[in-house]
Design brief:
Helix content is 66%, strand content 0%. It contains three helices and no strands. It is elongated, with a radius of gyration of 18 Å.
Length: 79
């Protein structure tokens, strides 16, 4: 069963639109755009979590950059 969808109205730069039309068949464009947005949104979420961890690091356990990057990489490969 498919996911619920909504039609949105937003602008895409001409060069990106041309590449999308040239490289992706018409019936698969929404899937490609959804997957790209999903990945970008996940990156934004992760950056926010890291910023929150770094902001709160002064009051609790300290995490090294290696620990944070390692945890993010482990999470990324789990999906």
């Amino acid at each position: 069963m498919g996911r619920a969808t909504r039609k949105l109205n937003f602008l895409i730069e001409n060069d990106i639109c041309s590449d999308l039309e040239a490289l992706v068949p018409a019936g698969k464009r929404s899937k490609i755009v959804n997957n790209a947005l999903r990945k970008e949104l996940e990156l934004i979420r992760r950056k926010r979590v890291v910023a929150k961890l770094l902001d709160s690091a002064s009051g609790g356990k300290h995490f090294s950059n290696r620990d944070i990057v390692g945890s993010l990489a482990k999470d990324r490969y789990a999906h």
